[in-house]
């Protein structure tokens, strides 16, 4: 392992990412690479891509081109815009997905991004009808979810002592509120809306609502396209078993070990794990 090449190390780390985060990061990076390649040939091509899939905050766009409320989340205005969004998604999103499951995680992410677009329609008469791109609104929803799940988790920021997650996220939200009237107020309202939707979705889930059921029809449609849906539905189910919609089934003993490790991460952070615990967490994260 110590002599492996950079590419092998990268592949191993990439495969170890939870499935939803891995998919989202891949899509965002792939679309940004397409933006860059189109820009190399001509800035008109890159601008055309943005004009076609960005979200314009007016009711006509929301009503007649609703797909823009999703596609805008995968476009970015520059490398730093993409990097910061993906870093926040990776830093905080991994623990959220491992705790909630990929379906619930995906519902919160997409709902936060959608909520950001819809609130921007309402706020546009005051803030301006500026096109919106970027995953920030969706990422803010995940950041709030992280702060609600792990409020005292220490976060290391540049040149600052460890700060609890709830204070880091609250500080970012407060900063957006202060800058709401600035030239990029449109982006700020999307951030705030994403954070608000993330909070509401988490509260709804804590009340016992199954968020994952919103993603199941899409998953079933995908299985039908692959021709595997009927096979999975034809197996008889024990009447004494409960239906589990948003977990990956692993051995009960391994589940206990995973729960213990996640609890330790919540209390002491990832660096508080022993080498054996980190290795075990890596092994369990690869099981699908």
TrEMBL record:
<dbReference type="InterPro" id="IPR022764">
    <property type="entry name" value="Peptidase_S54_rhomboid_dom"/>
</dbReference>
<keyword id="KW-0378">Hydrolase</keyword>
<feature type="transmembrane region" description="Helical">
    <location>
        <begin position="104"/>
        <end position="126"/>
    </location>
</feature>
<keyword id="KW-0812">Transmembrane</keyword>
<feature type="domain" description="Peptidase S54 rhomboid">
    <location>
        <begin position="65"/>
        <end position="202"/>
    </location>
</feature>
<keyword id="KW-1133">Transmembrane helix</keyword>
<keyword id="KW-0645">Protease</keyword>
<dbReference type="InterPro" id="IPR050925">
    <property type="entry name" value="Rhomboid_protease_S54"/>
</dbReference>
<feature type="transmembrane region" description="Helical">
    <location>
        <begin position="132"/>
        <end position="150"/>
    </location>
</feature>
<dbReference type="InterPro" id="IPR035952">
    <property type="entry name" value="Rhomboid-like_sf"/>
</dbReference>
<keyword id="KW-0472">Membrane</keyword>
<dbReference type="Pfam" id="PF20216">
    <property type="entry name" value="DUF6576"/>
</dbReference>
<feature type="domain" description="DUF6576">
    <location>
        <begin position="253"/>
        <end position="287"/>
    </location>
</feature>
<dbReference type="GO" id="GO:0006508">
    <property type="term" value="P:proteolysis"/>
</dbReference>
<feature type="transmembrane region" description="Helical">
    <location>
        <begin position="69"/>
        <end position="92"/>
    </location>
</feature>
<feature type="transmembrane region" description="Helical">
    <location>
        <begin position="185"/>
        <end position="202"/>
    </location>
</feature>
<feature type="transmembrane region" description="Helical">
    <location>
        <begin position="21"/>
        <end position="41"/>
    </location>
</feature>
<dbReference type="Pfam" id="PF01694">
    <property type="entry name" value="Rhomboid"/>
</dbReference>
<comment type="similarity">
    <text>Belongs to the peptidase S54 family.</text>
</comment>
<dbReference type="GO" id="GO:0008233">
    <property type="term" value="F:peptidase activity"/>
</dbReference>
<dbReference type="InterPro" id="IPR046483">
    <property type="entry name" value="DUF6576"/>
</dbReference>
<protein>
    <submittedName>
        <fullName>Rhomboid family intramembrane serine protease</fullName>
    </submittedName>
</protein>
């Amino acid at each position: 392992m110590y002599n492996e090449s950079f590419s092998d190390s990268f592949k191993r780390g990439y495969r170890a990412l939870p499935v939803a985060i891995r998919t989202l990061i891949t899509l965002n990076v792939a679309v940004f690479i397409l933006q860059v390649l189109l820009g190399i040939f001509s800035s008109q091509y890159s601008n055309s891509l943005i004009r076609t899939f960005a979200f314009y905050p007016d009711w006509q766009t929301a009503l007649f081109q609703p797909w823009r409320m999703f596609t805008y989340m995968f476009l970015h205005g520059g490398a730093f815009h993409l990097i910061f969004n993906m870093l926040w998604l990776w830093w905080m999103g991994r623990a959220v997905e491992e705790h909630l499951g990929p379906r619930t995680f995906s519902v919160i992410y997409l709902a936060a991004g959608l909520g950001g677009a819809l609130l921007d329609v309402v706020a546009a008469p005051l803030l301006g009808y500026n096109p919106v791109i970027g995953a920030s609104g969706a990422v803010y929803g995940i950041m709030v979810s992280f702060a609600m799940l792990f409020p005292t988790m220490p976060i290391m920021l540049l040149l600052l002592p460890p700060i609890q997650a709830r204070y880091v996220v609250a500080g970012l939200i407060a900063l957006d509120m202060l800058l709401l009237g600035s030239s990029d107020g449109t982006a700020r309202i999307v951030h705030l809306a994403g954070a608000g939707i993330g909070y509401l979705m988490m509260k709804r889930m804590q009340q016992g609502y199954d968020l994952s059921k919103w993603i199941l029809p899409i998953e079933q449609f995908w299985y039908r396209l692959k021709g595997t849906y009927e096979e999975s539905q034809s197996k008889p189910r024990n009447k004494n078993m409960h239906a589990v919609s948003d977990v990956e089934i692993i051995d009960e003993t391994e589940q206990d070990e995973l729960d213990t490790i996640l609890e330790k991460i919540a209390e002491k952070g990832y660096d508080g794990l022993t080498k054996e615990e980190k290795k075990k967490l890596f092994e369990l994260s690869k099981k699908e």
